[in-house]
Structure formats: C-alpha cells, structure tokens
Amino acid sequence: MRYLMITHIAAHAGQSPGVIRWPADWVRGLYAQSKALEAEGFDLTVAAPVNESFESRTLNKKHYIDANLKDQPYDLIALPAFQTASQFVGIRGTLKKRVADIADDFDAIQVGPGGHPVSLGQTVWPVIEQTDAKRVLVFGSDPIPAWQRYAAAGRNLAKRIAKQMAVRQLETFCQTAMRDADLVFAGDSSVQQRFATSWNANCHTLFSHRLSESDILTSPPTHTRDKLRLICFGSDHYTRGLDHLIRALAKARRLSAKIELDLVGDLLNSAEMMNLIRDEKLESNVRLLGKIDDAGQIALLDDADLLVSSHLVPTRDPIIYLAAARGLPIVMYQGGVYHDHVVDSDLGQIVPRGEVNLLSQALLDLSRNRPRVQLMSANALAWAKTRSLDAMHRKRAELIRALMK
Predict the structure, then answer these.
(1) What share of the chain is helix, strand, coil (3-state, %, to 5)?
(2) CA quadruple 292, 297, 303, 304: dihedral positive or negative?
(3) Using the 8-state DSSP alphabet, how is residue 282 labeled?
(4) I want to staple 10 with a disulfide (CB 3.0 to 4.6 A). Which of 49, 89, 92, 329 is the partner?
C-alpha cells in the first residue's frame, strides 16, 4: 500500500546533488512515522515544498541536518515552494495541479492545517477529495490561536482584515475536513476543545513528546549511594518555587535526611537564591551547575535519584519527559500540568501547592524509603515509553492499517 504525506515543512537543497536539508526535530518524527508505517505494510512518500537555495538566515533560525535521498526510508516529491502570500498566489495553480497529478497513485493521503502564510492542507484538500484515497487529517495542536496572533499583527489595516478573514476560513476548513476525513489525529486535547462540534468517532488524540525510544532507558537505574540526590532545573528570572525547595531541603536535612541537590540553570545571577542557600547553610549540599547542554543534562539526570519540579505556576516543562525517560521519579506541586500523569501512573509524589513543610516531609520520607523510589522509577520509565514518538506513530499506523481493511 502507498501512503502520501503532504507537508508544509519545506526542504532546502543541499550542497550536493540528491541531498536535502530539513529541520532535525522534523526528521526525528519523520523517521518514526516511516518505520511505523513500514511495519504496517505501507510505503511512505513525502510531498513537500523544496527550495532550490538555502538561506543562511534560515540555517541560523533552526537546526537543520542533511539527508541523502537515496538512503532515506521514504520517497520525496518536490512541490513548488513559497514564503509570502504573493508567491503563493503565483504558484497556487501549479501546486494544485502537481498534487492532482500524483494523488491517484496512493491508498491514503495525509495533510494538516499548517503552513505560512497559507495552510497547505487547506489548499490541496479539494484536490484529494476527488480521489479514492483515504484522507488522514493531522493536527499538532489547536492552530487557531497562533493564526489569530498573526492576523492581529501589523500596522496595515487592510492586511489585518484580510488575515482575519483567512483565519475564519481556516477554522471553517478544519471543522469541515474533520467531519469528512476518514481519520483525524490530534496531538493534544486543545483540538477537540476547539472543534468539539466536529469531533467524531474517527478522531483520536494521541499525545507524544519528541523523545525517541532510543532516549529511554531499557531498565530502571539502580543507585546504591547513601544519599538521595535531587535535581532541579531553574532560572534566575524565575525563582518562585525554588526558594521553597531550598527551605524544604534545609528542614529535611535538619531532621537527619541524607539528601543533596543539583541545581541546573543560571542561578548564580540571583542574589536572593545565593543568600538563601548561605542562610540555610547548604553550601556543601547544593551544587550550582549553571547552564548545561543536552548531553550534559542526560548525564546529570542519570546521576540523580529524583527530579523536583518546584514551579508554583503550572507550566509545560519538557525536562519532565526526559527525566522520566531516564527513570527519575517526579516530585511536584499539586495542580501542575503533569499532575494527572504523576498520580495515574504513580511515577512520583504530589505535594499541596506552596506547602513547604509538606514538601520537606515528602523529601524526608523518600530519602528513607528507597524501595519506593525504585518502584516510582520503574513506573516513570513505563510512562515515558507510552509517550515516545515511536509509540505514538505505531498507534497511528495501526489505526490507518485498520482503516484500509
């Protein structure tokens, strides 16, 4: 069976023939999807805009990697590229004809609402409606808020009105396409909330983080040292909550808890935090590590026993997933973004928000109950495996295969 993914993610010509450049994060997801589709009997073809040149400002904006097309697990069909609305108007007819020429050769076709300044999926949807292919509509998250911000920007009133009309048209397209598609995949709950009246039995929310299975440990780590090592990521621009952790750690140590803390981030610039650490006499028990690159983060996580997320305000912190992937239980305040995951999967400890004494007690209890830490570590790994790119794409591919039956 043949599967066509039409994407707005533009490729750029590389320095050698047969080589293209794509954003590294995009390639991670593409590889995971191609592997999952192959396992279900699909050959993947990607249709994407291809720019003939590669601008240095684009290279500086994102991390790109080279891909030699003869070595890739997919075929590439080049679509005309555009970067401005006027350029899109000039190539729109050619673009739709190109998609019409190839679409009949595929059993299933995937599009999404993304693209700037025009949604590519919205443009080609009428074309693929004319084929016998199954239609798969894929959302990362609710696209409308970003488009609304874009529409409100700029001083030219006529352009703002035109952009606002385009947003309304995109929202209408999403509602209609969601009802007509054979399968709809959403990356988070915001899509169902936005388009609740169009959500139906063909729609599925499948969340993943940008972690590959290769990032996840195969078995829980076993730490034999006497002290419980905590790790926390912070910033001198946002220390509310970190001060709670410092006070909680100091109190737990006064009660004979064997605990030490690694603090990652540019906290040396925070006089408040430095004074607090000195006042609590924790200079020998807190390591201030500054900013750390990705490889350094993994090494530190692998050397820790617990991740403490001390945010007072709920926030989506990507380090949570990487920590779970390295087998670290999570200690966090109640009501955060990951509260339900921590509770439902028993991968950490929840503390009532702002209760420093209870946070201290939780740290003290865990320092004395290492089997509990080990159990939560195994649960964290199991949870991370269900949130990997690979797991999400396998589930998508299974649903697409079932659709073909």
Answers:
(1) 45, 20, 35
(2) positive
(3) -
(4) 49
